Amino acid sequence: MNIDAIREQFPILHQQAHGHPLVYLDNAATTQKPQCVIDAVRHYYQADNANIHRGVHLLSERATAAYESARSNIAKLFNAASIREVIFTRGATEAINLVAASWGGTNLHAGDEILLSEMEHHSNIVPWQMIATRTGAVIKVLPMDDCGALCMEQLDDLLSERTKLVGIVQMSNALGTINPIAEIITKAHAVGALVLIDGAQAAGHLAVDLQLLDVDFYVTSAHKMYGPTGTGVLIAKATLLDAMPPYQGGGDMIRTVSFAQTQYNDLPHKFEAGTPNIAGVIGFGAAINWLQQLGFPAIAAQERELLTYATAKAEQFTGLRIIGNAPNKACVLSFVLAGVHPHDLGTILDSEGVAIRAGHHCAMPVMQHFKVPATARASFAVYNTIDEVDALFAALTKAQEMFA
């Protein structure tokens, strides 16, 4: 893989930050966008700007074709059974809320159980708490160990005929842990439970075959896959989507409307109310094409090299404690540095041109488990380099010296 050639495709990387070359290591929050994605969004606004599905004029037809082409690309990337199963949302968060409100509001009752893991992002906790309050369902939690790996030996005891849904993150945004979702799905299905996989952190780094995994609900966001913000996707089995009531009303989700009765549209439009983020979806399609051209094996190999190198340096760095040492993890290095609050660390590193994330990463239960208020998090993408890892640790050395 020619990293220099890849980096040339990202205009934002070629700038100074506080007088230093920008080192962008906040990819778990959002990845940067290649020129092809920027061009796709710009082309829509410059040449094809029109609403989709409703117009018979040329601009609308071109915009609709580009929008639906993105849906087809996503279905192929994830091996969805049909494009009918690909629902565009504002992101993974809205996709989870859609499932919780529509499927959960219809199918959950008092005493039913929802099983989540201790390492979930807030977006895969709060919607289930909200629907549990409404329905009387109960939330159970699969714990993790002090390495940041799920305690899989406890899974069988937590699953029962009362379990209606299991919600599991594929890759932890706070720790980098890659969870054994195939095993979890098999065991959940054995007791009759459905499974929602939060793939927001994983989908830009790992190949995902939804047919092979037999996932019921899968969600992700474009902006963590080199695509635009404000765009995401829910991919779910058509049998489930057909039985679920609409999440919102208006726009494309209707077939006919009268004051006496409304008939809803077919999938996928049944869940796509209102004018969507057309440019964002088209940019998402361009990002999917870009990822496929690189190939996930090459992406994984590059990111594995970066994480291995960074982990070795971290283990040798006096006063640094890695948070999350699961045997199976990817592209995230979370840590604390003795005597320096992560927020201070983030500010100091920024002054050296190094962009990391500092905080609880929308995963407060993870912070509570490790008994830390926050962590500093360096997260890698395919365009990062060994030299940038060295720049990270050079900046950490300066921060440590300041607080000595």
Attribute tags:
alpha/beta, globular, seven-stranded mixed beta sheet, 404 residues, Aspartate Aminotransferase, domain 2, Aspartate Aminotransferase, domain 1, 17% strand, single chain, four-stranded antiparallel beta sheet, 2 domains
Query: How large, in whole angstroms, is the Cα Rg?
Result: 22 Å
Query: What is the CATH-assigned architecture of the largest domain?
Result: 3-Layer(aba) Sandwich
Task: Report the sheet-strand fraction.
Answer: 15-25%
Name of the top-level CATH class of the largest domain:
Alpha Beta
What structural class is derived from the secondary structure elements? alpha/beta
Number of domains: 2
Strand line-up of the largest beta sheet: 4-10-9-8-7-5-6
By DSSP (H or I, 4+ residues per run), the number of helices equals 14
> What do we call the CATH topology of the largest domain?
Aspartate Aminotransferase, domain 2
Instruction: Look at the structure and give the mean pLDDT.
Output: 96
The CATH superfamily of the largest domain is known as: Type I PLP-dependent aspartate aminotransferase-like (Major domain)
Biggest sheet, open or closed, and with what strands and sense?
Answer: 7 strands, mixed
What shape does the CA trace take?
A: globular
Record the SSE blueprint.
Blueprint: H1 3-7, E1 16-17, E2 20-21, E3 23-24, H2 35-48, H3 58-78, E4 86-89, H4 92-107, E5 113-117, H5 126-135, E6 138-142, H6 155-158, E7 163-169, H7 181-190, E8 194-198, H8 210-213, E9 217-221, E10 232-236, H9 238-243, E11 254-257, E12 262-264, H10 278-294, H11 296-315, E13 320-322, E14 332-337, H12 342-351, E15 354-355, E16 357-359, H13 364-370, E17 375-379, H14 386-402
Parallel strand pairs: 3-15, 5-6, 5-7, 7-8, 8-9
Antiparallel strand pairs: 1-2, 4-10, 9-10, 11-12, 13-14, 14-17, 16-17
